Amino acid sequence: MNRPRPQARSHSRPPSGERGRLDRLRATRATRTVRTACVAALVTALATLTGATPAHAVDPPRVQCNPADARIGESSGLAPSSRHPGIAYTLNDSGNTPDVFAIDTSTCRTVAVLRVSGVTNTDWEAIAVGKDDAGAPAIFAADIGNNFGTRAQVTLYRIAEPATLADATLPATSFPLRFADGPHDAETAMIDPRDNRLYVASKLFGAPGSLYSAPLRLRTDQVNDLTAVGPAPDTATDGAFAPDGRSFAIRNYSDITVYAAPGQQLAKFASPSTTQGESLMYAPDGRSLYVGSEGANSPLWVVPLPPEAIPGGPSAVSVVSPGGQSGVVGRVVSLAVVVSGGSGPYTCVFQGLPVGLSAAGGGCVVSGSPSVSGTSQVSVTAADSVGAVSAPVSFGWTVAATPSGGVEIASPGARVSRFDQRVTVAVRVSGGTAPYSCVARDLPAGLFLSPFTCVVSGRAWGVGSFAVEVTATDAVGAKATAAFPWNVTWF
User: Fold this and answer.
1) In contact, 325 and 396? CB cutoff 8 Å
2) Which domain does 196 fall in, by range?
3) What pLDDT shows up at residue 10?
4) What is the per-residue pLDDT across 160-208, written as a single tens digit (0 to 9) for each?
5) What is the CATH number of the domain that holds 363?
6) Whether 104 and 240 share a structural domain
7) What are the distances in angstroms from CA 186 to CA 144, 147, 233, 236, 237?
8) Nearest Cα residue to 235 out of 259, 263, 201
9) How far apart are CA 267 and CA 247, in angstroms?
10) Whether residue 153 is found in the same domain as residue 188
């Protein structure tokens, strides 16, 4: 939160003689809180008037829940737990206790409070998760607020993420930080999950800030310099890396900007309207954000990311053209269409396939035996697991007639039989390479086809009209189909 403070203060309980003075300071602080909230509202209005939010999420933002814990009145950051799915960590900024709150992201209920021992909350403004030197999950609290620019050094605190969530007091490891180009106010600290490097964004009103990177390995015995590596949005209040580290987002009071790398902007879009938005983290799937605000009972929002904000996301789903295809009537074919991008598994929709071919279950493999010669223009589109759809890809598929010497099946012609009448009908197969196997479709109930002799026999007890198909396959997979009607009457 950006509000002036007369001086850094210890947050242990004051002596009785100090209490009157602190009461007056708290009243002054409340006034400044209102002032900062007004600035946030003004920034939001200006962004709307200037059209600074051209991109929009696929689905509208929605309120996930409202924290009811009165102890979380100035939430100034969010970070997802590495050990406990569905849990996020948050903290209050200056003037509060050095506590990290674990909240359930589905209900906003506080699950545990982690008191950080041996430190003070001078101006805690951000929180992130990463790893310690041994690679174990850790929580990082960033004491980086510097409203007046008087702090030559700021501090990053690291605590071990507990394996079991319960109220606890935990020790911290302290890393002194310093901006290489001079002091800055900051409220954004992020850790790249790929290499555990810390990034900090400076906060400037009315002008772009800068993004700074820390040394890959932080040290406790010397000051760690933060070096500028790219721009940051004006009035940056929080940020986070995507779970895969391929992008990161930084917010201010009105917008969210997503980057593929420092200085490489992917998207910018409006954030939900809040009292004083100062927290942001990615959802586990990397396709939406959780955003929050200071203020008692302020809602926790879920904001779906627009396609352009997701590297390798919906716009990247594509189908590789298989090129022109050919086949022969009666011969088995199989074609696997290659799909890339997005998030598998994929489903495919084909249009215009030759008669006799299909993609079972919405899959991306075409199989079957074409039964009609000719040329078809086939179109295929693919969708990934989250519904992103590729551009259609078209290709030709030519089916030739069965050459002489191929499998041939003679239709036995229209058949008529009575209920419970014993029948025997031989379907003649020739050509191709013996032996043959036969299958039938839509035979009247009570009749059966021998797969080895291609003879239909039995007593029909299903009355009605049936469109029977018998398909013969030779030893090398060539097929031929005969279709004929079969009527079963009562008398």
Assistant:
1) yes
2) 16-311
3) 34
4) 999 999 999 999 999 999 999 999 999 999 999 999 999 999 999 989 9
5) 2.60.40.10
6) yes
7) 6, 8, 12, 8, 8
8) 201
9) 11
10) yes
Query: Does residue 1 lie in a domain region?
Result: no
- Helix ranges restricted to H, 388-438: none
pLDDT (tens digit per residue) in 427-438: 999 888 888 999
Give the distance, in angstroms, between the CA of residue 480 and the centroid of all CA atoms in the same chain: 47
Residues with Cβ within 8 Å of 301's Cβ and at least 6 positions away in sequence, in order, are 61, 62, 63, 64, 272, 274, 290, 291, 292
Determine the Cα–Cα distance for residues 284 and 286; give it in Å rounded to an integer.
Answer: 6
More confident residue, 19 or 178: 178
> Into how many domains does the chain fold?
3
Strands 333-336 and 393-400 turn out to be unpaired
Provide the CA 358 distance to its chain's centre, in angstroms.
31
Residues 304 and 329 both lie in one domain: no
pLDDT bin (cut points 50, 70, 90) of residue 18 is very low
Q: Which residues are within 8 A (CB) of 164 and not within 5 positions of it... i.e. 6 or more apart?
A: none
In the sheet that holds 357-358, the strands lie side by side as 333-336, 365-368, 357-358
8 inside domain? no
Give yes or no for residue 151 having a pLDDT over 70: yes
Q: Is 110 exposed, middle or buried (0-12, 13-18, 19+ CB in 10 A)?
A: middle
- Residue 43 DSSP label: H
Give the end of a domain, one of 400, 421, 442.
Answer: 400
Chain centroid to Cα 158, Å, comes to 28
H or E, element range at 398: strand 393-400
**305 and 342 part of one domain:** no
Is residue 299 in some structural domain?
Answer: yes
Task: Tell whether 444 and 480 lie within a shared domain.
Answer: yes
Specify the pairing of strand 333-336 against strand 339-340: unpaired
Distance CA 479, CA 171 (A): 75
3 falls within a domain: no
Segment 464-482, tens digit of pLDDT: 999 999 999 988 788 889 8
d(CA 58, CA 48) in angstroms, rounded, equals 19
Domain end (from 311, 334, 369): 311
* 287 and 244 part of one domain: yes
Residue 6 has pLDDT above 60, yes or no: no
Q: Is 98 in a helix, a strand, or coil?
A: coil
Assigned token pair, 259: 């980057």
Average pLDDT estimate for 442-447: 93
Complete edge-to-edge strand list for the sheet that includes strand 186-191 = 124-131, 137-143, 154-160, 173-179, 224-232, 209-213, 198-202, 186-191
Cα–Cα distance for residue pair 312/340, rounded to 1 Å: 9
What local confidence, expressed as pLDDT, does residue 95 receive? 83
- Model pLDDT for residues 37-53, shown as the tens digit of each residue: 444 444 444 443 333 43
Average pLDDT, the chain: 86
